[in-house]
Amino acid sequence: MLRVVKLGGNLHEAPELADWLQVLARAGGRIVVVPGGGPFADAVRAAQARWGFTDAAAHHMALLAMEQYGLMLCALEPGLIPASDPEDIARVLVRGRTPVWLPSSLCVGAADIPESWSVTSDSLAAWLAARLGAEALALVKHTVPVDIDPRALALAGWVDTAFPHFAKAFGKPIHLLGRQEAPVFGEWLAHPV
Fold first, then answer.
1. Which of 5, 88, 188, 190 has the highest local Cβ count within 10 Å?
2. pLDDT along the chain (193 residues), means of 10
3. Which residues pair with 65 in a beta bridge?
4. Does an H or E element contain 61, and which?
5. Can you tell me the distance from the alpha carbon of 187 to that of 175, in angstroms, rounded to the nearest whole number?
């Protein structure tokens, strides 16, 4: 069965990023990686604060920031392959490789995705997991909070404010993994949900 793994953009500075890229590549054919926005999304936030352009424009730019981070991940690990839509994702999975989702073609203008900062890569990972019929979702964060209830996570700022809605719509298990948990990723992948 397929699982979706959101790799936090804040791992771009963590030495553990290389470990995560290796384990994600080794899980080829079984997972789809959703990249965070990392420093590229931070640049969008800074530009919006400076110039005051609309949230809709910032949303589109943040989707492209996720794509930039995703392309960086693919450039760092040859076992990761960029994929834009379910058909691309399926082609990569069938080859036993790990697709890294580039979200803009599916998300720009999608009626069920608010064009604001209330939706970030966490919510988009849950949205994609539901769309693909995944059996589980993992969010790889810099650190892991104690309370992993979606509402508590949103209230504490661990995920975006729309995440509880998207998590409920997904309706399947969601796990949080810390940056140092790459060595145990295989256990999560092998564990039935």
1. 5
2. 95 95 96 97 97 97 98 97 98 98 96 96 98 97 82 90 97 94 90 78
3. none
4. helix 55-76
5. 12
Sign of CA dihedral 72, 76, 78, 79: negative
Q: What value, to the nearest 5°, has the Cα angle with vertex 110 and ends 104 and 113?
A: 95
Name the pTM for this structure.
0.96
**Segment 97-128, tens digit of pLDDT:** 999 999 999 999 999 999 999 999 999 999 99
- CATH of residue 104: 3.40.1160.10
Using an 8 Å Cβ cutoff, are 37 and 72 in contact? no
For the record, the structure tokens of 1 come out as 């069965």
The answer to whether 24 and 31 have CB atoms below 8 angstroms apart is yes
Structural domain boundaries enclosing 52: 3-190
- For residue 190, the surrounding DSSP H or E stretch is helix 185-190
Work out how many domains the chain is built from and give that number: 1
Query: 98-101: long-range contacts at Cβ-Cβ below 8 A with a sequence spacing of 24 or more?
Result: 98/24, 98/25, 98/27, 98/28, 98/29, 98/31, 98/32, 98/33, 99/32, 99/33, 100/32, 100/33, 100/34, 100/35, 100/70, 100/71, 100/73, 100/74, 101/32, 101/33, 101/34, 101/35, 101/70, 101/128
Nearest in space to 126 (alpha carbons), one of 83, 183, 80, 165: 165
Enumerate the β-bridge partners of residue 34. Answer: 6
Tokens of 21: 């890229």
Nearest to residue 158, comparing CAs of 36, 2, 61, 69?
A: 36
